[in-house]
From TrEMBL:
Pathway: Cell wall biogenesis; peptidoglycan biosynthesis. Residues 106-296 form the Mur ligase central domain. This is UDP-N-acetylmuramoyl-tripeptide--D-alanyl-D-alanine ligase. The keyword Acyltransferase does not apply. Its main location: cytoplasm. HAMAP family: MurF. It comes from the Bacteria. Its EC number is 6.3.2.10. Keywords: ATP-binding, Cell cycle, Cell division, Cell shape, Cell wall biogenesis/degradation, Cytoplasm, Ligase, Nucleotide-binding, Peptidoglycan synthesis. Gene3D superfamilies: Mur ligase, C-terminal domain, Mur-like, catalytic domain, MurE/MurF, N-terminal domain. Involved in cell wall formation. Catalyzes the final step in the synthesis of UDP-N-acetylmuramoyl-pentapeptide, the precursor of murein. Residues 336-455 form the Mur ligase C-terminal domain. Pfam families: Mur_ligase, Mur_ligase_C, Mur_ligase_M.
Length: 482
């Protein structure tokens, strides 16, 4: 079944189709392109027009271009538009307009990707669901996600992120959400915004595109919560639902019991008691899960089914996925537990990850050392502005550090944390992830639980890979997220 015909795409983008074609998907990358996709030749780090011939050779149904590329013949199936980025946005808006799907948009300094994935799982149990892939949440990721949405979709979950002021509102206008959800506001991208209030104002702008009769779901325990609520009311939200721990919240988390691999939460949705489980350890997951249940209610989902499906969600690689690394092919209990948090980091998500590590159960008397240890590999947290050094050093005083045995650090900023740690807790410090990865085998032992976390540009995926190579990875449930 086609997603876009040539006539539909030309009408949506005010472009011109050179031939008659039908596409079953939309792609911006020839490395992941599937036969039948419409290839969109965006100009970013590289000019997508240079890859049109390759895309067509790999079976693309057509290519959206602003000019006919060299080496592409007159018979090639093309959609010619004035500007490819603008064309993609127009295609996304047309996809949103033609569907009757109920749409929820998610943003937040921490937790937006895991919350989006929780919502995907919950919605998928009650209808045909479409959601952002990976972290496709920027100026091309949001319209691409929308353009890929089938007309028959029942529910859509769109993640919206930002790096600079003024980015969220136009993306929200494209998505036109029925529910807009803000997970939290925390120090992230301070370099661009200067203050928490600046970040809050940008996050609050997700309500700018709220559909008539829409609902805003916002964190109610923050100093900036009144800003979020007021922005929702000014935007015409029919309802503003708060979640958090304070008694004032409509959805209130009463307690969360965090175990090694699960979290069990008790809450109230106004006068309705809620008991729900998440297959990952972490108080932050309990709170984000409550936000999901609030959004699910606003979408009109069955609450009992939503609670059940929420309990079957677990994190993905780089955002808290947990693995048992088997060091011995025969002795299955000779393992290292890996918590992969290498995708991103800011002070709030780093604190949440440290709490998960501090609560993890180690195994004793199975390695060279008598006792298993909790080991952290921590890399730079980027885009924190003038306070970056102090924010890194402050991690040494986080309450969870008292239960972490060894901390290894990577990068210039993380060096401030290393200097602030007590000598007995310091492991190694290196300038690069590659140098740290080279010594992983000497650092770790059977029975240890190891957490790896830092901003993506620090490259701590190399440390994760080095830990995996110590043995045979066996998937488990998960932990944290950004």
């Amino acid at each position: 079944m086609s997603l876009w015909t040539a006539a539909e795409a030309a009408r949506a983008t005010a472009g011109r189709a050179t031939t008659d074609w039908a596409a079953t998907g939309v792609s911006i990358d020839t490395r992941t392109l599937a036969p039948g996709d419409l290839f969109v030749a965006l100009t970013a780090a590289r000019d997508g027009h240079d890859f049109v011939a390759d895309a067509l050779a790999k079976g693309a149904a057509a290519a959206m271009v602003a000019r006919v590329p060299e080496g592409v013949g007159p018979e090639a199936p093309l959609l010619i538009v004035d500007d490819v980025q603008v064309g993609l946005e127009a295609l996304g808006r047309a996809a949103r307009a033609r569907t009757r799907a109920r749409v929820v948009a998610v943003t937040g300094s921490v937790g937006k990707t895991s919350t989006k994935e929780m919502l995907r799982r919950v919605c998928a149990g009650q209808g045909r669901t479409h959601a952002s892939e990976a972290s496709y949440n920027n100026h091309w990721g949001v319209p691409l996600t929308l353009a890929r949405m089938p007309a028959e979709t029942d529910f859509a979950v769109i993640e919206i992120g930002m790096n600079a002021p003024g980015e969220i509102a136009p993306l929200s206008a494209q998505a036109r959400p029925d529910v807009a959800l803000v997970t939290t506001v925390a120090p992230a991208h301070l370099e661009a915004f200067g203050s928490i209030e600046g970040i809050a104002a940008e996050k609050a702008s997700i309500v700018a595109g709220l559909a008539p009769g829409g609902t805003a779901v916002v964190h109610g325990d923050l100093d900036v919560s009144p800003m979020l609520e007021e922005a929702a009311r000014r935007a015409g939200a029919a309802r503003v639902v708060t979640f958090g721990e304070a008694p004032r919240n409509h959805h209130r988390l009463l307690r969360a019991t965090v175990r090694d691999t699960t979290t069990v939460a008790e809450a109230r949705a106004w006068r309705t008691p809620l008991l729900y489980k998440i297959a990952a350890p972490g108080w932050h997951f309990a709170l984000n899960g409550l936000a999901v249940l609030a959004a699910a209610r606003a979408l009109g989902l069955d609450r009992a089914l939503a609670v059940g499906d929420l309990g079957r969600w677990s994190p993905v690689a780089g955002r808290g996925a947990r693995e048992a690394i088997r060091l011995d092919p025969v002795e299955r209990d000779v393992v290292i537990e890996l918590i992969d948090e290498a995708y991103n980091a800011n002070p709030a998500s780093m604190g949440a990850a440290l709490e998960v590590l501090a609560g993890a159960a180690v195994r004793d008397v199975i390695g060279r050392k008598a006792a298993g240890r909790r080991v952290a590999y921590i890399g730079d947290m980027k885009e924190l502005g003038p306070e970056a050094a102090a924010l890194h050093a402050a991690l040494a005083d986080h309450p969870a550090m008292a239960r972490i045995d060894v901390v290894h650090t990577v990068g210039d900023l993380a060096g401030h944390l290393y200097a602030a740690l007590p000598p007995g807790r310091r492991g190694r410090h290196t300038g690069t992830a590659e140098k740290m990865a080279a010594g992983v085998r000497r650092d770790l032992d059977a029975g240890d639980v190891v957490m790896v976390k830092g901003s993506l540009s620090t490259g701590l995926g190399a440390v994760v890979d080095a830990v995996r190579k110590l043995g045979h990875a066996a998937p488990r449930s998960g932990s944290g997220d950004d």
